[in-house]
Amino acid sequence: MQNRPEVGDANAVHTEKKTGHLGKGESAPINEADENVLSWTSKTAEGAAVLVALNLSATSQTASFDMASRGGHGQQARTLLSSFLKAGEAADLSKLVLPPYGSFVGTLKYP
After folding, report:
1. Would you say residue 2 lies in a domain?
2. CATH code for the domain of 25
3. Considering the entire predicted model, what is its pTM?
4. How far apart are CA 84 and CA 3, in angstroms?
């Protein structure tokens, strides 16, 4: 049985519509060699950024994102929307475990 969105998820979608992290700025693929997890970052001109990670496989996948090499700070993101974490939860980007067909969108810290 798949997780159903929670109230916090609706708030995250509202926040995203208000801030526009996914719809503005530049996007860049990340971890392009990973055949199971499609991921990218999206960054606005103001410096706000998100990481999007989608597990396209029927098995759990552990993805590792080196945000320092992309100018980010820290290895954590705050969950905006996810199929397996609640909105607002911290996510460890050094070992993000995505369930089968799982999705994650989280805010990143940049200078």
Report:
1. no
2. 2.60.40.1180
3. 0.77
4. 7
